[in-house]
Amino acid sequence: MPLVTLLIKFHKMSWSLFKRNILRKTNPNNNPSLNINQLATIWADEYDAVVKRGRDLLNLESVQKGNKDLAKVFFQLALLKGLATPPGVNFSLVNEFGNGVKAYWMGAQMNPFPIPLIPAPGTIQNIVVNSNIASNPGTWPMYPPLKPAKKQVIMVNMFILAATVHLFSVGGIIQTTSLYPSAPSPIPSPAVIPWTAYLIPPNIPIPNINFPSSDGSEPPVLEQVVDDSVTTLTPTPQYVDNDVDILGTPILKDVIEETIPDGVIDEEMENILPDFISQLEMGGTKCE
Questions:
Q1: Phi, psi (rounded to 5 degrees) for 240
Q2: I need a labelling partner for 247 at 20 to 30 A (CA). Which of 196, 208, 223, 284 fits?
Q3: Do residues 193 and 176 make contact, with C-beta atoms less than 8 angstroms apart?
Q4: Which of 235, 132, 258, 106 is nearest to 193 (CA)?
């Protein structure tokens, strides 16, 4: 089987693989001597792994190096805080883990490839990526007070939902050398491309730079499809018409349904999802 095909099959397990690994590695029956440092390391390692299987929404560049060590420190603090919280006092480990996730994104370095196809503002073509840094760690959506999770899988599902919503709010700055229009020939000079939203496969919906088209033939959103060794862009029917907002960007709820494995969102969490989205829209006012 071609390597790229294997990678795509692997990518399609992204959050499912994260969930299985967390549950297996943190199961006390598998490792009865597990301590807080080891738990924090597992969460940091698995989050780092699943993020590196994703890419930003517009330019398709993935994380090269996140702040995993700092994330681990915050995961440790969250676990210690959970141990120190008396019974009956409201405490959400998932909410506390949000500090570790945001720490991971503080100054995260992105890969310089592929070179963004959409030219930097004021330019006609990007030549090279000089740097790409995540400058906005995003908004971690906060769960309201809930009954303590009786099973670990429930807590992991809650983390996956919050983490997916959070990724839609992270962003950064790509510094490029791009061509500016000039006569008789374009002039190369520094340029800046801001980006927002990071997605985990299997589906990466991409805004179509040709939309709207005069004859209506171009869909507002495309999906990256990999066939063996060739990367192409083909229309994605499920994101056309009512499934995109006025900017041609996929609606967060639809992205979640495409990227989160089955069984993660139960009825209770589905009711929480609209509030999560509103928290992002308010820029984190609920997440202080």
A1: -85, 160
A2: 284
A3: yes
A4: 132
pTM of the model: 0.80
Kindly give the confidence (pLDDT) of every residue in the chain, 288 residues in length, as a single tens digit, with 9 standing for 90 and above.
Answer: 443 333 334 444 689 889 999 999 999 888 889 999 999 999 999 999 999 999 998 898 999 999 999 999 999 999 999 999 998 888 999 999 999 999 999 999 999 999 999 999 999 999 999 999 999 999 999 998 877 777 889 999 999 999 999 999 999 999 999 999 999 999 999 999 999 999 887 655 555 666 666 677 777 666 554 333 333 333 333 333 334 443 344 566 776 777 777 788 888 888 888 888 888 887 754 443
Q: Is 251 exposed, middle or buried (0-12, 13-18, 19+ CB in 10 A)?
A: middle
- Which of 218-225's residues contact partners 24+ apart within 8 Å by CB, and which partners? 220/244, 220/248, 221/248, 221/249, 221/250, 224/60
Instruction: Domain ranges for the chain, please list them.
Output: 14-201+253-281
